[in-house]
């Protein structure tokens, strides 16, 4: 994942409040890291530990230093600094940078931007912006619902009934996050956050009815903008020749963006109440999170009883 300096300039959601004052040619420069750097020592000519791929933030201390040293020395150090492939310079507190910095950045095609924020505030804002924007992401064909606080990702081939299950869950008081396409971002260290695309948010496609707006039909309590995905439940067409898990002892996982999620496979056939099965799956997930595994406990009790019977037969 990466983003351009132009993306920083166009931000509205995080309040970076940036304006360009030079180096427009470098707006296509890409950022790949969420880390920033304050190039204090680099302004003195020491560039040993310079990271040119990071956003370079110049605050009151850095600008004051450049104004106080002789202009010839300052220009020399800035030209040395600009000889590196710097992603961009950002000056905080609305300060006016020295003209030789503007000139060198413009000649090297390095974007020079200014924000009114203080350095500490701006570093916090841009770090959050970069961390969110550079997270690994993907999208999956499916439906994401919030069932009893559990983020359940419903998978299955088109037409198997994912949206109908989600609609029934909404009617029962649960919440829709996304239908059809689920956009997923990895939140460090190991959580996946799903949400709908902006154009289809709050909407569902129900065959025979068309597109419906869940928020308008059932109110704001029936929707969520985003949800951490806790459980993957895949709907499969019933195959009488296939053997399905009837005990639930062995836990399967599905890996998305390097994160392993519990994976349940539920066969679909007439007469099965899938909505109730999904609700029970969510409740069972919560129980497992509290350390109670129904299937394993049953299995252990069964084995213990078999051992007791075997000992009894030996005594006889």
From TrEMBL:
Q: Where is this region: Important for the catalytic mechanism of dephosphorylation?
A: 267-272
Where in this protein does the record put region Important for the catalytic mechanism of both phosphorylation and dephosphorylation? 204-213
Keyword match Transcription? no
What are the alphabetically sorted keywords of the record? ATP-binding, Kinase, Magnesium, Metal-binding, Multifunctional enzyme, Nucleotide-binding, Serine/threonine-protein kinase, Transferase
Can you tell me which residues bind ATP?
156-163
Give every HPr kinase/phosphorylase C-terminal domain span. 134-301
Enzyme class name: transferase
Task: Cite the CDD domains for this sequence.
Answer: HprK_C
Q: From what superkingdom does this record's organism come?
A: Bacteria
- E.C. code: 2.7.11.-, 2.7.4.-
Q: Which residues form the active site?
A: 141, 162, 180 (proton acceptor), 246
Cofactor(s) named in the record? Mg(2+)
Concerning InterPro entries, the annotation shows: HPr(Ser)_kin/Pase, Hpr_kin/Pase_C, Hpr_kin/Pase_Hpr_N, P-loop_NTPase, Ser_kin/Pase_Hpr-like_N_sf
- Pfam families under this entry? Hpr_kinase_C, Hpr_kinase_N
List, in alphabetical order, the Gene Ontology terms for molecular function in this entry.
ATP binding; magnesium ion binding; phosphorelay sensor kinase activity; protein serine/threonine kinase activity; protein serine/threonine/tyrosine kinase activity
Q: Where does Mg(2+) bind?
A: 163, 205
Q: Which reaction does it catalyse?
A: [HPr protein]-O-phospho-L-serine + phosphate + H(+) = [HPr protein]-L-serine + diphosphate; [HPr protein]-L-serine + ATP = [HPr protein]-O-phospho-L-serine + ADP + H(+)
Q: Locate the HPr(Ser) kinase/phosphorylase N-terminal domain: which residues?
A: 4-130
Domain comment (free text): The Walker A ATP-binding motif also binds Pi and PPi.
Family recorded in the similarity comment = Belongs to the HPrK/P family.
Subunit structure comment from the entry: Homohexamer.
UniProt function note: Catalyzes the ATP- as well as the pyrophosphate-dependent phosphorylation of a specific serine residue in HPr, a phosphocarrier protein of the phosphoenolpyruvate-dependent sugar phosphotransferase system (PTS). HprK/P also catalyzes the pyrophosphate-producing, inorganic phosphate-dependent dephosphorylation (phosphorolysis) of seryl-phosphorylated HPr (P-Ser-HPr).
* Anything else known: Both phosphorylation and phosphorolysis are carried out by the same active site and suggest a common mechanism for both reactions.
This one is known as: HPr kinase/phosphorylase
Q: Which organism is it from?
A: Geomesophilobacter sediminis
The protein's gene is named hprK
